[in-house]
Amino acid sequence: MFWSKKKQSESTEKDKGREKRNLGRKIAELFSRSGSLDEFYEELEEMLIAGDMGGAVTMEIVDELQTRVRKGKIKDKESILEELRGILRENLKTLELTSPAQGLSLYLVLGVNGVGKTTSIAKMARYFQTRQGKKVVFAAGDTFRAAAIEQLKIQGERTGCRVIAQSHGADPGAVIFDAIDSARSRGENLILADTAGRMHNRKNLVNELKKIDKIVDSRLGNQGEYRKILVMDATTGQNGLQQAEVFHEAVDIDGVILSKYDATARGGLVVSISRKLGIPVAFVGHGEALDDLSVFDPDAYLDDLLSTDS
Ligand code: GDP
Q1: Is the CB of 227 under 6 A from ligand 1?
Q2: Is ligand 1 within 6 A of the CB of residue 237?
Q3: pLDDT tens string 128-150
Q4: Ligand 1 atom 9: the closest Cα is on which residue?
Q5: Whole-prediction pTM value?
Q6: Would you say 92 and 300 are in contact if contact means Cβ atoms under 8 Å apart?
Q7: Ligand 1 center to 119 CA (angstroms)
């Protein structure tokens, strides 16, 4: 697995996903078949689409590959694969969440229900607690579902984080406003704020998120870091991209956490998020345990995606 060498030898179930994801090997097989270059590009397109890169993005990438191969008079398969890797690499963007030592930071965590928002909040808390020694608190901004508040409290207990919550149906903006004041007065460093993934309709959701965004902007101060992070479920494929567009339109997403990467054989969503929406990837989630979160490393990701190992 690309997130950790140690995991590679441990995992059996997860390796299955990797084998299926092994685009490099499939491309190598494609080279070994006889056929015209046109047929090769057609099949390559099919593979990339099946790997979740999306139709439009795939076409652009393969067009670019054809142009580069032609211009560079490239003939051997390793070089074509390298060229493809280069194009994909240029499309991958990363977001580093630094959560500065000074001031109070807030990461607003967005995404539709079930994508792994609450789990990702807990995993991020663990990450910032252990890697950066931060005092992390949670704000229960999804007041639309009573269960969401309860779930966040469970994750608070699991990670030792204080949870700032009001009752079901409370104004989410007020919860987050209080969380900022309360965390500041206690000298805590980082608020991870949950938000609703669904409301009565899309307009309500968008308006609510815009309102929260304004409150954070005006209340947080500028010493810390304010980031809007969208959790995307790697198993939802291109539907995830449409969801992302709704959230991006509402609040200008700064970065993505790609959850459930362990549960999919297709890894191309990362490329289409970066290329189509221009949103960088901060973390990849690869399991349900608190440590199953890694900073997104594009080179390691491409090693995994394009590996020709069998
Ligand atoms: P929320 O509704 O967006 O808050 O989603 P949850 O955090 O409750 O997660 C929904 C389900 O996905 C739960 O069963 C989680 O354990 C599971 N989940 C979350 N992240 C991951 C991940 O990275 N890998 C796997 N395999 N499951 C995950």
Answers
A1: no
A2: no
A3: 999 999 999 999 999 999 999 99
A4: 116
A5: 0.90
A6: no
A7: 6
